[in-house]
Amino acid sequence: MLVALAAAFAVVFVSPASAADWLPHPKDATWTYQWTDSVYNTVPTGETVTVKDQTAASFTLAWTTDGNNNAADAPTSAGQVVFQDTGRGLVTLDWNSGQPPANFPVLCATVTQCGNSLASTYYDVIWGTRQPTLVEPLLKGTSWTSTGGFQNDVTSTSTYLGTVSLTVPAFSAPVAAAKVQTQVTQAGALGDPYGSGVRTVWWVYGVGPVKVEFLHTGGAVTTSVLQSTNQTPVAPPPDADYFPLKQGEKLTYRWSNTKHLKKPSVTAFTVDQVSNGSARFTVKSASGPIKIAGAYGFTLRTDGVSNLWASTQSATQLTFPPLGPSSAPAAQRRHFITPFDLMIYGLNPILPAYGTTGSSWSAIVPSRDYSIFGVTGTSTVVGTQRVTVPAGTFTALVERSKLVQKGYPYGSGTRTSWFAPGKGLVKLVFDHADGSVSTVELLH
Question: Which domain holds residue 256?
């Protein structure tokens, strides 16, 4: 039997919405920061930040030093920065302000027509990290590169270092903050030692940045700390990565079915390409009655991990029950050939962005997923559980899916999947409505 599978899948995610975010922007939101620079601004300078406007997924934050009772020799400033919420996270679209204080280093090749400044809190936040400014979802091991500056001459590599307890004047008790550290490099500017260095931003869910520290290569240190806000800290979402898209990762699975595949099929997957939160897994057979070659594409976005496409070829003398949907020509219908076929079947996403117990999402009719699979049903994160497979013992996130493909019992039933942090899928059991049971386990 020769099977070819190639499809693109739409991302569908339905779950209870939360107003919390890493940078919330309700129209009445306000934040007050105080910043200093150890060399160029030793006078504590207060800035008030407000939401100027919002259009669809874009929003503008404006700041001013007016009304902050600053000392007479403190720098004055007013400006704005335009952000956009995207599926990959927070990006910076634009910014503008008055000129930085005359004593600050020039962050361009020439003094005239220089659109760069580090003389405000939000300029320090976005410096060198325009797109994205903050990757989401923010999971363990997350790292990304970006550029910035008026002429995109600033490069950076950012790494999420985990959640820490932090005390700032805005709150009466310590808050849980996500710590993001960025190595920033600027070359070619008159003041590029000041434009280069190590910046750390502490983000609080439901609030935004609460502290910024920039250790400039030239020796100066800029620090900004949140003094007050009308936004309320929220416990950050869990940050375990249950489906890592890591270059070079190798996974080998054993799949059997009590009726249709009694001799297990062993397949090996390798992540051979990763870019901008998307990855390609190649697959080939290791042993068993099915010869396989192919690839799968996955992406991680704010709505979760989704399968984008799949392309496989296989040969076997086994005969499997047919799958639908009946609306599709026989040559275009789905087949269960690899463990990933069982995992991606039915609806996207494969997993929500954060492994929150109780998260639930359903197939939408009509939708692209439904046109491909013809499956109705719901997936739910039911919690964590210790599970032992040949690859080891893991505390895994358990997801259960109820799936119905009308007229096709082999394509209907209950699928339970176990995902281990930092590893991905480690076990899957599909109780098919035809009475058979498929079991997938990670070997190594």
Answer: 2-16+240-442
399 and 345 in one domain? yes
CB contact burial 222-246 (16+ within 10 A = b; e otherwise): bbbbbbebebebbebbbbbbbbbbe
User: Cα–Cα distances in Å, from 47 out to 4, 34, 377?
Assistant: 60, 6, 50
On whether both 9 and 45 belong to a single domain, the answer is no
Q: Are 346 and 378 in contact (CB under 8 A)?
A: no
**Domain presence at residue 24:** no
Whole-angstrom distance between the N-terminal and C-terminal Cα of the chain?
Answer: 28
Backbone angles phi, psi at 332, to 5 degrees: -105, 5
Query: Which helix (H) or strand (E) covers residue 32, if one does?
Result: strand 30-37
| DSSP-assigned letter for residue 288 | S
Q: Is the pTM higher than 0.85? A: yes
DSSP class per residue in 384-440? EEEEEETTEEEEEEEEEEEEEETT-GGG-EEEEEEEETTTEEEEEEEEETTS-EEEE
Q: For residue range 327-345, what is the model confidence (pLDDT) as tens digits? A: 888 888 889 999 999 999 9
| One domain, residues 11 and 35 | no
The number of folded domains in the chain is 2
Spatial separation of the C-alpha atoms in residues 422 and 244, rounded to whole Å: 6
Assess whether 278 and 422 both reside in one domain: yes
Distance CA 70, CA 314 (A): 71
β-pairing verdict for 58-64 and 41-55: antiparallel
Beta bridge partners of 311: 6, 295
Tell me what pLDDT residue 339 has.
98
